[in-house]
């Protein structure tokens, strides 16, 4: 049997427990007040350093990028990749006619392809950008083969066009089983023209 602790032993044990509690509380306070904030600051510093390095690399590349853009503006092949014209509304109408012509060119393949809805779009232009953009919204009823042909022509032909959004689904009148037949296709086509010429400075 263990003998009961005497008064001095109980005092020593109590002091030990008190010291242990004080140490644990101090450690928790130090960790919450200093260690965690210091870790957050260290992480923020790493993020800022990474951003600084990225911006520094971008600034270092700026002269080369500017020279490349100037060469591209003077390169006839670069100009062929842009839509001709200076008025965005007129260029958007021309882009829609270009899309119509290309889709008519594949209308004889497989089940065919036709436009059911179309609308030119002229986004708000940013004068700081080197090129302006125009868009055309198209809704098609298309077979798989002509659809692949027309998308390939948009992406790889001249002038350079970009399919910004594409949605493909079975047409409402398609049979529940068997070949898909005509597909309902919604796409947003984007092209670029040169920036508006700047007026004479005052």
Describe the structure.
With 202 residues, this protein is α+β, with helices and mostly antiparallel strands. 51% of the residues lie in helices and 21% in strands. The chain has a four-stranded antiparallel beta sheet. Helix 3 crosses helix 4 (144-156). The longest helix is centred in the N-terminal third of the chain and has 68 residues, at 7-74.
Helix content: 40-55%
Q: So what's the oligomer here?
A: single chain
* Number of helical segments with 4 or more residues: 4
Count of β-strands: 4
Indicate the overall shape: elongated
In summary, what is this structure?
By secondary structure, the chain is α+β, with helices and mostly antiparallel strands. The chain has helices spanning 7-74, 76-80, 88-105, 144-156; strands at residues 113-121, 131-142, 161-170, 183-194. Helix 3 packs across helix 4 (144-156).
What are the salient characteristics of this protein?
about 200 residues; about 20% strand; 4 helices; alpha+beta; four-stranded antiparallel β-sheet; single chain
SSE map:
Layout: H1 7-74, H2 76-80, H3 88-105, E1 113-121, E2 131-142, H4 144-156, E3 161-170, E4 183-194
Antiparallel strand pairs: 1-2, 2-4, 3-4
Helix pairs in contact: 3-4
